[in-house]
Amino acid sequence: MFKKCVSMSGLALAALAFAGAPVQAAPVVHTQTPTGAIATAVEVPAGSDLIYLSGVLPPVINPSAPAGTAAAYGDTTTQAVNVFKIIKAHLAEKGLGMGDVVMMRVYMVGDPTKDGHMDFAGMMAGYKQFFGTPEQPNKPSRSTVQVAGLAAAGPAMEIEVEAARAK
Predict the structure, then answer these.
(1) pLDDT-derived band of residue 11, with 50, 70 and 90 as boundaries?
(2) Please, is 125 exposed, middle or buried when counting C-beta atoms within 10 Å of its C-beta (0-12, 13-18, 19+)?
(3) Which of 13-27, 37-51, 62-76, 113-127 has the lowest mean pLDDT?
(4) Cα–Cα distance for residue pair 137/144, rounded to 1 Å
(5) Taking the domains of the chain in order of start, what are their residue ranges?
(6) Whole-number Å distance between alpha carbons of 58 and 80
């Protein structure tokens, strides 16, 4: 039922060490189901580099829209895609990619067009473009919560991530 994405087992590592061959670092393991949107667990081996990215808000894409309104940022899917693009660029600066994300926290405000509920489906439409794809199959552990407000008025979400690089 669960799939573990690993590149080398512990027994293989021990055999290499015993044979005098150089030992590769233990990999980061994403335990995920084929149909689930997120990992059920992510194991980060001791000694890995951990990178924490602060929360990212979507950029203004329509400067002619009234400041502090959702219209300035686009719909929820557009906002999610733009946030993930920013996160991807920050990770690339550190030599990492979206597959290295091990934990994600998504904070969303209520959408007035959805009776005050967060637009989870809109966020997921953007998320699925970056995680669990054929090109990038890893999915992070994740929490998604609705909050009363964000630091800026207008955006639907703020996303923070933690990434890991096995040494």
Answers:
(1) very low
(2) middle
(3) 13-27
(4) 20
(5) 45-165
(6) 7
